[in-house]
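thought: fold this chain, then report.
action: predict
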Amino acid sequence: MEFLAHICYYRKRGVDLIIKYRDKPAKIAGYEALLKRLPAHHAKRGLIQEKLNGARAGLGGEERLDQLLESFDPPYPYLVLQGVELPGKCQIDLMVITPSWLVLLEVKNIAGRLRFTENPSALHQLTPAGEMKGYKSPIIQMETAEMKITKLLKQLNCPLRVQSAIVIAYPSQIVESVPAGAKVWSADEVLIQLERLQMTNSSISASQMTALGDHLLSIQDHYNPFPLAPKFDILPSEIENGVFCPRCRLKKMDRLLRIWECKSCFILSGEAHFEALEEWFMIHKSTITTTECKEFLGLPDRDAAKRLLKRMGLEERGGRRHRQYVKRMEK
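observation:
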């Protein structure tokens, strides 16, 4: 515990037991933006909509577990981290730190019948429409996460034991053929299962729990799902340019001097281009030039594009003739 002893401090009374709240996945906004800018009959719309529906469902399942845990009141101290992304592509839907255990939970909100298979390990879904789909095994996913977290704790000289479970978000999901030894819980029983954790010997103190949680947050490695267009093999020419009205959503705005106007609902905005440029970075690439900005936003000249890009607070790279503006990565 030398490392934790070095960075630990005592929690102040009244501090929330949730030390990291869940963020809305950035890919949801990306899928929405891409669908908005694709033609109505584009061949990839169905696939992108399916990805969007899956991301929304996943978030909905995770938020249901978050709500259920609001009444969690075990006889031991604990800390909760919602939506943790650690190095090595180790993504944990929910993490609970206790004096004896570090618990990893993976939430599944997939409609229909779910069947686990072995040799090879996989998860198969029979959708309400009768379609069969296959997914990577969440059991293998969590066993891999357990190994990575256990290795990390060993590096920190932290004696916590690690266990994981798959959480089925809703009772309407029917689960079959769970392999022996695998932990698959319904969301409604998570509180009971956590209450039953054996806390006979505390491995770390409350202050060391906080230190561990802070350290895990400090080493997060956020996954960047962008840009989306290359991942779906969509050409730039297939994506509609322009600034869309924040009220009408599907109506494009006109530039009048230094303000945007929607001819449909007559709303005026001086900042509508900010959302459009965010969509550029989600869809096209992480850089943009004044020429690309001019064409994408429908501006009269490159000077106007330069002024707008300067206001975005973007990182600038390259010389005057070859300057690119780069989206800063959020930490």
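thought: worth noting. Residues 34 and 262 are 21 Å apart (CA to CA).
final: tokens above.
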